[in-house]
Amino acid sequence: MKKNGTHMKNKLLSILTTLFAASVQAQETASNETMASTMRSNGKIYVVVAVVLTILFGLIAYVIRLDRKVSRLEKES
Amino acid sequence: MQFHWWKIAAIALLTYAVVGGLLLPVPELSQLGETIRNLYYHVCMWFSMMILFTVSIVHSVKYLRTGDLNHDIKAESFAGVGTYMGLLGYATGAIWASYTWADPNNPAYASFGSIMREPKLIGAAIALLVYGAYFILRSSVTDMDQRARVSAVYNIFAYAMLFPSIWIIPRLLPSLHPGQEGNPALNFNDIDSRMRMVFYPAVLGWTLLGTWIATLLVRYKQLNEKKWNAHEK
Questions:
Q1: Which of A14, A46, B101, B213 is the most buried (most CB within 10 A)?
Q2: Whether A51 contacts chain B with CB within 8 A
């Protein structure tokens, strides 16, 4: 019985250490995460890409909305 | 909503034109620097204008052959979006020129004077004004069939005027604007192959977006027409 208890304790400890190691590793990747470093690299050109894409998708969404409205009117008439 | 394949293609190609156009490598040239990427946007406006005007004239000729008012609506819509693209091309060209042609050592008006003497700019302005007259002509004729017929004939003249004003005369005069010795963006030996990879899809994408907007205009005008016809009965 006692032997079983220490076995459990060991197992718990090993799980904990694994989790800790995993969390440290996660923090390490977070500090140089690809997205964050991408957005700040190369004179921050990716920020421009994001801005232009936002405008483009905004305009396309507007065109799609108009298209839907016209389609609805066509169905009604 | 009718989600045709070409609408999805327009979205995909434009996304590629923005991401690839801003991030992919380009040749390093003095004076131009990164602004060479404007080829994917500024030049595409003029290309799509030319294509939309071509669609417009085809519909004008079709109207004259058949007398179907739907062709008149299409001709007007495509000419409208084409003119709009041309105005955007002019505006973007003005921004581009002010950072590459203008001499920072001179007062602004000195550069402005020489830029305004650019034959390409004057030619493009003439072309756009000729199309502006098309819309004035349309709105000044009240009879529907007469308006369609007169403006279809005028549209053919307007299209013909494009060739001397933006293709021929600017080539005969000295200019800062590239494209003196032919078609720099179309010539396979001239344009950098890395830029071609983005430029042609970008032309297609912008043209498809213009077509999309033009078809919306067409459908709106057809609905309007239907409403008026129902009214009269």
A1: B213
A2: no
Contacts (Cβ under 8 Å, ≥6 apart) of A20: none
Strand, helix or coil for residue B107: coil
Residue with tokens 């220490």: A6
| Residue B195, both tokens | 């830029």
The closest of B34, B94, B51 to B202, measured between CA atoms, is B51
Per-residue pLDDT tens digits for B173-186: 777 777 665 555 56
Quote the radius of gyration of chain A (alpha carbons, Å): 27
Secondary structure letter of residue B177 according to DSSP: S
Rounded CA-CA distance B2/A68 in Å is: 8
Q: Is the pTM here over 0.95, yes or no?
A: no
For chain B, what are the domain ranges? 5-232
Give CA angle at B65 (B70, B135), nearest 5°: 55
- Out of B2, B18, B226, closest to residue A52 by CB: B18
> Residue B161 corresponds to which amino acid?
M
Nearest CA to CA, how far is B229 from chain A (Å)?
A: 12
Q: Choose among B206, B204, B186: nearest CA to B195.
A: B186
Question: In this predicted complex, what is the ipTM?
Answer: 0.70
**In contact, B60 and B68? CB cutoff 8 Å:** no
pLDDT digits 0-9 by tens, B18-38: 999 888 888 777 777 788 888
Both tokens of residue B209?
Answer: 């977006």
Q: Please give the backbone phi and psi of residue B92, each rounded to the nearest 5 degrees, phi first.
A: -65, -35
Report the residue of A41, A57, A63 to disrupt the B interface, i.e. the one with the largest count of B CBs within 10 Å: A63
pLDDT at B12 over 90: yes
Compute the distance between CA of residue B34 and CA of residue B164 in angstroms, rounded to an integer.
32
Instruction: Report CA B203 to chain centroid distance, whole Å.
Output: 11
- Does residue B118 come out as left (phi exceeding 0), alpha (psi in the -120 to 50 range) or beta? beta
**In a 10 Å sphere around its CB, with 0-12 CB exposed, 13-18 middle and 19+ buried, how is residue A17 labelled?**
exposed
